[in-house]
Amino acid sequence: MIITVDGPAGTGKSTVAREVARTLSYAFLDTGALYRAVAYALIVFKINLSNEKAIAEFLDANPLDILTQGQETRYVIAGIDVTPHIRTREASNASSLISTYAVVRSFLLPIQRGFAFHQNIVCEGRDMGTTVFPNAEVKIFLTARPEIRAHRRFLELRGTTSTSFEETQKEMSERDQRDSTRSISPLMQPHDASLIDTSDLSILQVVDRIVALAQAFPHWEHFQHQADIGIRGIGTTIAEAFAQAALALTAVITDPSSVTPKTSITISVSAEDLDALLFDFLNLVIYEMETRHMLFSQFDITVTGSQLRATLTGEPVDTSKHHPAVEVKAATYYELLVCHQSNDSWCAQCVVDV
Predict the structure, then answer these.
(1) 2-215, superfamily in CATH?
(2) Are strands 138-143 and 194-197 parallel, antiparallel or unpaired?
(3) What is the full DSSP assignment across 306-337?
(4) Which of 85, 138, 163, 173 has its CB surrounded by the most CB atoms within 10 Å?
């Protein structure tokens, strides 16, 4: 699952997104830090921030590395760990300027998307839900009253600069104008995002709202179980939970988004209870993958009592396109569980020995 948290400065994006990631045990991608890291490196190496060609040449020669250890993330570019400097006023103002350049956004886009491969993430920024991850399952847009945002930013900078509250307020207003009017990926609320005004809410209250939205939204997850891998589907109905579990099964083999839904087949199974129904369904999905040499990325399912009928849609296996992580063959499933959860969603999960 990908959760995007967008909004202007001072709305609490970074703090909220980081805490949501911690609560859900998801990876956290601080995209604002990426832009600040690039900006600070350009300042250190005295690259003219108005010269896009010079910036392009610098970025071509100096990759950005994201080093993660536990909950700590460090940013290294051109051999320099710039992490201690990315929250400074200088880096913040410079990042707002260079973020308008296509060359910088193109440089960071594959880094951001690559971070989401094969893992659940929470990311924050200004165009996460519109440009970087337009198909994210959960999109959040945070806002707050201008004076509240300026006060928060002033407190964040206090001790690192002598900037007054009035100067902070003016700089934030100017940045809002730049970010919302730039021609490339301007700051805007995604049409399908949930809007949360954080002005009068605590961090915990905002986090709780987002976590509730994420937990109720249909999605799939992987979890570790000793040497094997667990797959879990969450949905508002049993059928949705089964469909998401099947997607999680596909994701053991390849990135489901790499599988184009071209060809459909229909299957049906029946069993004495829901746990057994999940077992038989997943077994049949793998059987169809193995015998037809196909991968599936779309599962349209109907569950009526102990009967399941599903349309599986996908395409033939193409190793150059799908880069399968494991061979498509019969698997062993154990610790199956289908249950109705306290937030009114359904969960279908099991452990797969591949």
Answers:
(1) P-loop containing nucleotide triphosphate hydrolases (3.40.50.300)
(2) parallel
(3) TEEEEEEEEEE--HHHH--SS-----EEEEEE
(4) 138
Q: Is 2 helix (H, G, I), strand (E, B) or coil?
A: strand
Q: Where are the domains of the chain?
A: 2-215, 219-353
Please name the helix (run of DSSP H) or strand (run of DSSP E) that holds residue 106, with its range, or none: helix 102-115
Q: How far apart are CA 31 and CA 34, in angstroms?
A: 5
Fold that domain 219-353 belongs to in CATH: Archease, Possible Chaperone; Chain: A; domain 1 (3.55.10)
The per-residue pLDDT of the chain, averaged, comes to 91
Tally of CB atoms within 10 A around 75: 23
Three-state SS at 125: strand
Note the pLDDT tens digit of each residue in 207-231: 999 999 998 888 898 888 888 899 9
Write down the pTM of the prediction: 0.70
Copy the structure tokens of residue 236.
């508002």
Strands 2-6 and 121-125: parallel
Going 210 to 211 to 216 to 222, the CA torsion angle's sign is positive
Number of Cβ atoms within 10 Å of the Cβ of 318: 15
